[in-house]
Amino acid sequence: MITITHYLVLSAILFTLGVVGVLVRRNAIIIFMCIELMLNAVNLSFVAFAHYLNSMQGQLFVFFTMTVAAAEAAVGLAIIVAVFRNKETVNIDDINIMKW
Amino acid sequence: MEAYLFYIVATIAVITGVYLIFERNPVFSALFLIQTMVCIAVLYILLEAQFIAAVQIIVYAGAIMVLFLFVIMLLNLNIKEESKNALPFQRIPAVVMGIVLFAAICMIIKSKLLQGKHGEYTTAYVNSVGNTKLIGNLLFTDYLLPFEITSILLFVAAIGAIMLAKRKL
Amino acid sequence: MLNLVALILLFPLIGTAINGLIGKRLRKETVGYVACGAVALSFLISILVFIGLLLLPPDARLFEKQLFTWIESGSFKSAAGLQVDPLSSLMILIVTGVGFLIHIYSIGYMHHDKGYHRYFCYLNLFTFSMLLLVLSNNFLLMFIGWEAVGLCSYLLIGFWFEKKSASNAAKKAFVVNRIGDFGFALAIMLIFLTFHSIDFTEVFSAASKGNFAVGSFSVTIITLLLFMGATGKSAQIPLYTWLPDALEGPTPVSALIHAATMVTAGVYMIARCNVLYMLSPFTMTVVASVGAVTALFAASIGLVQNDIKRVLAYSTISQLGYMFVACGVGAFTAGIFHLMTHAFFKALLFLGSGSVIHAMSGEQDMRKMGGLRHHIPTTYKTFLVGTVAIAGIPPFAGFFSKDEILLESLVRGNFFYWAIGALAAFFTAFYMFRLLFMTFHGKSRVDHHAAEHLHESPKNMTLPLTVLAGLSVVGGFLGIPGASAISNFLAPVFGEHGHTEISGAEAGGHHSAYLPYLMMVVSTAIAIAGIYLAYQMYIKKPEIPKKLAERFHLIYKLLLNKYYVDEIYDALFVNPIKKGSVQLWKQVDVRMIDGSVNGIARLVGRFGNALRYLQTGYVRNYAFYIVVGCICILVFAVLGR
């Protein structure tokens, strides 16, 4: 029998993978994709809770999260494009002038 | 049956996730991410959230990831680009921290901190009305204001993206 | 009518507000009218209040008006209240009356000054403060007035603050007054501790009930501290040095503040506290001795000064000394009487000297005057009246009051007070007539430039002179021996001890009945002797002074340099304090205070400098910190339950 714990642990694994990806990768686009993975992991736990608690609110929240993710992806990718135009790179280690 | 399906899909999702973060080529990374999302869509169906599963495929795997691929190809990135590594010493602590984070989340799950109230939307009831119809009803009644605000958010995001990406206005 | 008393204070305050706030935009005439009108209204109401007081039976002549509760803290309570009794009603008449005349005089005197409205603003403020001082019904409110007149004095001495000497004089007056005020403030605290009240009525009734033995320690300390305040404000030894310098202010100010009113505040205060002083014979001795020494000391300096205003300043100090002698021997009535007559003739003399200076285009050195009586006749006549009055020739005002003081000092005090007082009176007659002769008589020593501009002062300056001259003539008749109106009037305040009845046999058992009349003759003779000497030296044989100065070179030099008191004070107090302050500034302020502030700032800077390297600029680094933070929060959420 699959319980909510299974789903939550899977969600935790995917989320952690996303976090590690953000921490170790330097390509801005891949970091972005890792963020999307984290969002998906959270969405999964939302839907799992909704299912096991007989509620619709989790599903509605996923709906909104997706909208925000879409908006974020659009703006974020536009920023990456703009940065690439200026610096000819998407390696975030090259973009470090905001310091001291 | 359901349990087997869950284990298979979950395994695929985790493996593709691992590939996502360790793949050098961004295009492959994107494809692995799409694979993960499809797996999650399958899980949504297992959780009887058919509408969300469909949206997951259409919006996430379809629209957003295609956008990613577009940008990757637009910038014509190759593998050598990711050359400079300013923080090589952060790699191992990052993985360790990831494991610790996972452990912490598992502690939360185990600690029964996450308790919720049971609602009235039982599976039988949802199935008798229809998942999509219920979501639509809720969106246009109880959640009308957030729904409309979302539209404004998307609108603003579109304008922002155009502003940022355009060379000259 | 007595209820109007608050209005007396209100009008000058309104005048101050108008001239101070919008005076710059008003025309000069308006400014003058506002200021004079305010004091005139005050004067009229003072007269009404005075009449109202006269209508009461003598024993009931005490009216208190509580305005509001001012401070209430624990057992300490101070109301803002006004008190009208014979003493304060007399004082408000003097202050507003003389003040009004001087305001009118100022319109002419200050006409060309660009700080016209500022001047009248200060002058009205001064009138207000002085009225507050004399009308208050408790020590604290009196202290406020006391401080406020000090402030006005500072502002007016430094009125021409562009002049270095004026601003220095103002500072000196302020600082020296502070020393006295320190004593006064301590006295108020001690009064509260001793009597548990600072209300005049309560304190004096507690004191007179006999709860305190004569000579009791606490009362002695209180009265000594009060006297310390009085020496500051009334320019007695050792705090008199500010008064001669105070003449840097405009002459009408010298007349109003530094001759007629403010400097008498100390005398007023001692007279007000007569009940306390009577309990402390030791303090009385101190008061009388200081007064006597000051009277002689200042008079001797006045003998040789050449600046016309400086002579008057030392004469003021000397006359104040007389008042303190009177208070010190317990003859408070005589002191207040002399205060009143002195206000008349000293205001007259100062205003007259102002008129002379006005005519001489600002020249103050008497050696460059002479023979002025033909050029400025009105000033001369009035000045003559003032001089005769201060010298003590009957029947002018000064004669009666000074004679009374000398008599009282002999009857109640001892021979030394009398001898010193008589010597000082001789000096007074001499230097005042020296001043008169040098200024108005003899050959003209005026230089050509000034001589061309010699002119009598305008009407609004001579009119106050005439009025004051009239007062100087008749003022003394209020205190004719034997039928003294003023002593009867003041009797409720001073009780039976304020005045010695000199109607025959009552004049003290062991003194013969004709003593008062003998004294009158003696003091008149002293005055005439002084005048004669001055006449001989400065009219008949003008070469004598020079010879004397050469013969007694040392003494002359000593007197001319005012006994070097200023220099001694500089060496003893001013310079050490200055040096100490510089040390404090350099060591304590710069090193310790600034150092610690800067040190803390530098420490914070160091920390910031060290911590800023956490800002690497690498986004992944920040993400790592975020993850660590998240883990901490999660762990805390689990374990912290």
Q: Would you tell me which CATH topology of chain A applies?
A: Helix Hairpins
Biggest interface goes to: A-B, 72 and 87 residues
The appropriate CATH architecture of chain A is: Orthogonal Bundle
Relative helix content of chain A: over 70%
- Could you give the distance between the termini of chain C? 80 Å
State the main characteristics.
heterotrimer; A: 100 residues; mainly alpha; Helix Hairpins; 0% strand; B: 169 residues; Four Helix Bundle (Hemerythrin (Met), subunit A); 2 domains; globular
Could you describe the 3D structure shown?
The complex is a heterotrimer of chains A (100), B (169) and C (641). Chain A has one domain (4-87): Helix Hairpins (Orthogonal Bundle), CATH 1.10.287. The model of chain A has no long low-confidence stretch (mean pLDDT 90). Chain A is an all-alpha fold and 100 residues long. Chain A is built from three helices and no strands. Chain B is an all-alpha fold and 169 residues long. Helices cover 75% and strands 0% of the residues of chain B. Chain C has 26 helices and two strands. Chain C has helices at 5-22, 28-55, 86-109, 116-135, 139-157, 164-195, 200-208, 217-233, 242-245, 251-260, 265-272, 274-278, 281-302, 308-328, 332-359, 377-391, 397-411, 415-440, 448-452, 459-474, 485-494, 515-540, 544-551, 553-560, 565-611, 619-639, and strands at residues 63-73, 76-84. Chain C has a two-stranded antiparallel sheet. Classes of the chains: A mainly alpha (100), B mainly alpha (169), C mainly alpha (641). Chains in contact: A-B, A-C, B-C. At the A-B interface, helix 1, helix 2 and helix 3 of A face helix 1, helix 2, helix 3, helix 4 and helix 6 of B.
Describe how the helices and strands are arranged:
The complex is a heterotrimer of chains A (100), B (169) and C (641).
Chain A (H helix, E strand, L loop, with lengths): L3 H21 L3 H25 L4 H31 L13
Chain B lengths: L1 H21 L3 H21 L3 H26 L15 H20 L12 H7 L1 H10 L3 H22 L4
Helix pairs in contact in B: 1-2, 2-3
Chain C lengths: L4 H18 L5 H28 L7 E11 L2 E9 L1 H24 L6 H20 L3 H19 L6 H32 L4 H9 L8 H17 L8 H4 L5 H10 L4 H8 L1 H5 L2 H22 L5 H21 L3 H28 L17 H15 L5 H15 L3 H26 L7 H5 L6 H16 L10 H10 L20 H26 L3 H8 L1 H8 L4 H47 L7 H21 L2
